Amino acid sequence: MTASTLVKGWCPGALRPMESGDGLLVRLRITGGVLSAKNTHIIAKASMQHGNGLIDLSSRANLQLRGVGDTNWPQLISELSRHGLIDQDPDAEAVRNVIASPLAGHNPTALIDIKPVVSALESRLIEDRALHALPGKFGFLVDDGGAFGVAGQTADIAFEAEKHGDETLFNVRLGNAETVALIAPEQAPNAAAALALAFLKTSKNRDKPFKKMVDCVNEFGLISLFETAGLKRLERRAQRQSVSPALGWHSLREFSFLGIGAPFGRWSANSLSALADIAAKHGKNELRLTPWRAILLPGLDENAAKLAIEHAGPNYITNADDNRLRVAACPGRPSCKNATVHTHNDALAFADLRTLEGRSGIRLHVSGCEKGCAHPASTNIVLVGRNGLYDLILNGKASDAPIQSGLNRQTAGIAIERALEGVKR
Ligand code: SF4
Hints:
The chain is an alpha+beta fold. The protein has 3 domains: about 20-90 and about 245-310, Sulfite Reductase Hemoprotein, domain 2; about 110-145 and about 155-235, Sulfite Reductase Hemoprotein, domain 1 (2-Layer Sandwich), CATH 3.30.413; about 325-420, Sulfite Reductase Hemoprotein, domain 1 (2-Layer Sandwich), CATH 3.30.413.10. It has 11 helices and 21 strands. A hairpin with a 2-residue loop joins strand 1 and strand 2. Helix 1 (about 35-50) runs antiparallel to helix 2, helix 1 packs antiparallel against helix 8 (about 270-280) and helix 4 (about 115-125) runs parallel beside helix 5. The longest helix is centred in the middle third of the chain and has 16 residues, at about 190-205. The chain binds iron/sulfur cluster (SF4).
């Protein structure tokens, strides 16, 4: 593998696509994860016409059109631009990394409707060119305080709605720090910009600029960063645990929705179109994209949800107990040219292992190489492809040193079962 093919920290977009094993990867950042049925059809059709008809939903709730040909790319961009799905320039696109509570605006348990905040924050990120110097993966999060929110997901700067007496305020959290600053919701874009500029200022004269807010906090201190950004009202607030994927049918008082997932976030253009039809006929005419790689269909009643589940069939995930949710896998071979193993096929085989049953969270990470794109955090078991076989790492990341090498699918399965037997459920 050469340095040019293993680029860490660079985040592709639509205007700066990434060359991959199956063609160009074109990433679309959908504001607030809110995708109308009409735009879903447009994206699905474009994926079939100009790509290979496969669309990955990333852990930042972005859509990644795969297999786009060099010669098709300009036409794809022009079609998506016509429908307002593309940014004006690549720098604005790269900085617009915001994840948001996916049921915003519908959720009766939410403390506020964060959609206007998310739009204002994105506008600020686009318009303030000083912020375009942020690292490619620097991310923001906005949580509405309701059920099925995104608090607890990884972000450099998070805004989490919470009641403080009679007021609903945002806790502003840097990384996973427990001391937060309190602000009124309408101050979020200014606070985000001030904190991001403070991050850039402290990072500026270093030999190795910071990539993440947590590194900056560790070196310069949380309080001094808040002070630099003019945020003075500080309190301790433990970070909320991130929620399990909202799969299956759920009702929240008068509102209901269906959550449906694709193994490892890989959707076909046809299946997205089918979801758009269901949303138009039975729901609120829109899809909501989530960072747990599932898609929510707001407004479906229980009968409509049953029909949708039947229609989806066993290839899709509609139950939070599904073993496939315990496994993270990157696209692997042939989608990525860094891979020598078929990660998706192998991960599906490993997901059948009984020892994964009844567990929660991701327990196994199957990675095509040490870059570990699918799951940057530590996992009980990590299998990393090398020369067509797997290295085994326990309780670590894909880049850690392996304890065993040269495993095929069968011997890797045995190693997984042995390793998980000793791990608490
Ligand atoms: S982790 Fe997977 S997707 Fe990422 S570069 Fe390696 S093989 Fe490719």
